[in-house]
# Entry
Amino acid sequence: MPSPKIQSLMMNSPLTITSILRHAESNNPGGRIVSVTADHPRHETTYAQAFSRARQLADALVRRGMQAGDRVGTLAWNDFRHFEAYYGVSCAGGVLHTVNPRLFPEQLAYIINHAADRWLLADPVFLPLLEKLAPELKTLEGIFLLTGAAVPESAIAGLQNYESLLAEGDADFEWPELDEHAPSSMCYTSGTTGNPKGVVYSHRSTVLHSMASCLPDMLNLSVRDTVLPVVPMFHVNAWGLPYSVPMVGGSLVFPGPKMADGETLQRLIVGENVTMTAGVPTVWLALLQYLEASGKDLGRLNRTVVGGAACPRAIMQAFRDRYGVDTLHAWGMTEMSPLGTVNQPLPHQQDLSGDAWLDLKAKQGRAVFGVEMKIVDDDDNELPRDGKAFGALKVRGPWVCSAYYERPESDAHDADGWFSTGDVATIDADGFMQITDRTKDVIKSGGEWISSIELENIAVGHPDVLEAAVIGVPHPKWDERPLLVVVRRAGAAVSPAELLGLYEGRVAKFCIPDAVEFVEAIPHTATGKIQKMELRSQFAGYRLADG
# Structure
């Protein structure tokens, strides 16, 4: 006789960003938020105070007509007011649209119009840019400058400051009950080819992503942490840290517009007892240069998360050997909220040292629970996890986008729900994934694939190299060969022969670059990644000798 049917007797509490807010308010109301802003050299507040102001913001926007799903844009740095918008907009049912101010003006106009933002919260430093763009911004009903200072004379009608907007709202605003699948925020890709594409996150995806990132083998966040997100809040939700840190009750330190200033970062790290930071490699190069020149240290900092681009081995060595700081290599994408992998060693790898340690740390890490990952060949056949086979990397999971905003067709998504990341990678038997290249950047020479990332990491290991990039250039015999492009440190005189000698015995002979070119600077995308397309354009027409 079959058993009687049984149903779950668990409560169905919606997973919303409001639940993070309420938890932090109840359990860690005194958690600190320290900021650098244009009108505050050092501003300190608490979660209780910030969420009270978030209610004022929500009420003010609702009084102005904001309805569920309406987009509110931000053009802002990392600070307490931007943090308030993260919660005030989304928890009221609106969609927070973080806009990257480093994009080209025409891209900014496209993004704001495409998202149909109704209001825009902007840092005062961007006012001249907005005055030029304002005639093209067709959907905006108002712009508010994120400051308490008086609003300057402007061609923008009705311009107000943020504090006057908050004064219109009530701190007793009651948060609405939201569907966990409702949209909460959105971010556009940097659009290196074609127009940027919009990714829309849900409350549920944000909460799940935040919970996963706190896990010990991920970012290992706790109430004992003070976290400095140097990754910008205008790009993929600052890697989720404005949600995950309040979730566990840790403190936040925001550097405002000083995200690439080594002196400011060092002062904040030591002065605010920061234990963890997160940012792209170029940020850490600037910090390490300042530390070397000043002789200063990093206080209580014990780990830094590096993502956005492959982390050079020299950075990881310097952090560990000089300052006792562990580097956590991580990987993800705007389309992934963004966390996909973090490099935390397994028990049998704890005692690795020397090159074996560096070889492990150079990998992007193991998948977090919630992210499925595989590599496939050109025919979409899954390849083995042996650390040798490399192929196109695909992912899927509850915080991976299923489509792009207002784009029903997507070449990146397949019929089985897998998203093609555009990366080429290997996965080993322990589950460690390593990016070997972007599919559009891989160098194909005589039928063999050459990893530009591996060659870049070796070059950056030289003490006289500030930054390096490798691109493929035409070759009369081999179709394409690697060209090493280098920015030397100030006063350095390293030669091409010396740099090419680094590769002897470390890579196969056919992988060694054919030539070295020195430049003053290497172009970067709006999110700090090396802009290979621009570099290839810069060296268009470059020819190597037959050989």
